[in-house]
Amino acid sequence: MSEQIKVYPNPFYSYANIEFTLSKQSNVLIEVYNVVGEKINVITKGIQMSGSYKYKFSANELGYSEGIYYIKFFINGTSFTEKLVQLH
Questions:
Q1: Average pLDDT of the residues in 35-62
Q2: How distant is the alpha carbon of residue 59 from its chain centre?
Q3: Are 84 and 47 in contact (CB under 8 A)?
Q4: Do residues 71 and 35 touch, judged by C-beta distance below 8 A?
Q5: What is the CA radius of gyration of the chain?
Q6: Which of 30, 24, 22, 33 is nearest to 46 (CA)?
Q7: Cα end-to-end span (Å), the chain
Q8: Is 13:58 a contact under the CB 8 Å cutoff?
Q9: Per the structure, how many domains does the chain have?
Q10: The CATH number of the domain where 63 resides is what?
């Protein structure tokens, strides 16, 4: 995958930054799952132009407690998963 993806800090307290750069126009889907595999949020979905993007994620802001979460990226049919841990 030529796209650059960074998720930081990890573990995190208040929120994690989700940053990625697209080298070309791409179909992007970013979803968040809890530890038992339930989808709890869709961060973005759709066609995005080439360039850099930044989103913030906080389980607490969505009404969930601290714990383990998985950020799943789908970019032009290629997938990538990042494990995140939210602390108190």
A1: 96
A2: 12
A3: no
A4: no
A5: 13
A6: 30
A7: 34
A8: no
A9: 1
A10: 2.60.40.10
Cα distances from 25 to residues 42, 57, 82, in angstroms, run 20, 23, 22
Q: Which two tokens stand for residue 42?
A: 């869709």
Q: Are 30 and 56 in contact (CB under 8 A)?
A: no
Write out the residue range of the structural domain in which residue 33 sits: 4-86
Average pLDDT over residues 39-65: 95
- Copy the structure tokens of residue 20: 């990625």
Nearby residues of 37 by Cβ (< 8 Å), 6 or more positions away: none
What per-residue confidence (pLDDT) applies to 88?
79
Extract the tokens encoding 56.
């913030």
pLDDT band per the 50, 70, 90 thresholds, residue 4: confident
